[in-house]
Amino acid sequence: MYMAKVASKTNPGRQKGSKATKTYNGRPVQPSLYIHRHTKGKNISYMGAEYENGDPVESDDSSGMPVRWDSI
Locations of Polar residues compositional bias (predicted)? Predict the structure, then answer.
């Protein structure tokens, strides 16, 4: 007798997503890739953060650079 296949082992619907979220200044943030392209060929890329509405999370000082994800 053949048995029906109930579910695959890698069914994404059965996997539990991470419920842990990071916050910055009391607002939830999500990771985003930041790429800064220089004219002299030195590119800087790292994981930054953005708010839920898509605005980048910038540092509190006057530089205006995005905050690194690992520093949140």
Answer: 8-24
